[in-house]
Amino acid sequence: MKALVKRGSADMGIENIAEPTPQKHEIKIKVLAAGICGTDIHIMKDEYPYNAPVVMGHEYVGVIDEVGAEVDHFKRGDSVVSLTAVKTCGKCRYCQEGALMLCPERLSIGSGVNGAFAEYLTVPARLAYRVPAGVASVEDLAITEPFACAVRAVVERSSVTAGDLVLISGPGTIGLLALQLAKIQGGYVIVVGTSEDEKRLDLAKKLGADLVLSEPDDLNRLVNEITPDGVDVAFECAGVEASGEKCLQVLRKQGIFSQVGLYGRKIAINMDQFLYKEITVTTNFASEPTSWDKALRLIKNNQVNLHSLISARIPLEEWEKGFELFFDKSNLKIFLVP
Ligand SMILES: [Zn+2]
Ligand SMILES: [Zn+2]
After folding, report:
1. How far away, in angstroms, is 221 Cα from ligand 1 center?
2. What is the tens place of the pLDDT at every residue in 229-275?
3. Ligand 1 centroid to residue 146 C-alpha, Å
């Protein structure tokens, strides 16, 4: 089968590899679509750990092609999505508490073990979820994984309640998913991007943003017009130093700073400002099973718009084109289709 393989430093490409065989507790999934994520870019640039050679891709939806001998709750033909942390020890305190991403032995698809930029992948059946019945487009659910990450950030690790003034900095896929969740929670939401983000900010408006801004320098003035206190919660979704700095500047005293984006390097940020303002910092490392339960319930109940975040569907063989499109800020989620 064809797969996009990261072979080592500055070395990746399409290879023909053997189809995986499901172990007794696993399912073999035929990939329908797999989204390109910022993490894939970090892996491409050797800024995120991976075990070479590895098939990349962790955001996907697929159809079960084969079930292992001891799998009894799925059958061939079921549409599924799955958690990404497929190898964990099962014994450490984090595994016991259901925080799989924090297991010291964790390996995730697309970086630690073979992932979804391929025709097939295998995952443990216990980590898979059936696509809810009645969804308009099964393919949209390739966005379940980033949505679960946004659920982890906004609903589980942070706190937004009715009446809160919320800032989303960075209107990428995660930012626009976080926006929708902050609205569901009752926030009054400002989404800020840059002059390159006009199209994304238009979409933010359609997805319920109360205010959008393409000029970060105007943010202090805008927030001050609403309240001189500052915003209650800021989600840094860009993974950009200037964006983090902006979030800190406009946060009110005792506000919540939620780091969602990955910087991929050390950044300089004034820690004393966190202290002077008694800021609470929250972070999230991808998503956990609890986040997937909530994400799939929200999808099932039609409370989130995933479809409008899909910008292009590119054949897997043309992955380079897909990665190029990812860098064009008029786009959001790019699917590779095997
Ligand atoms: Zn991702
Ligand atoms: Zn563990």
Report:
1. 33
2. 999 999 999 999 999 999 999 999 999 999 999 888 899 999 999 99
3. 5
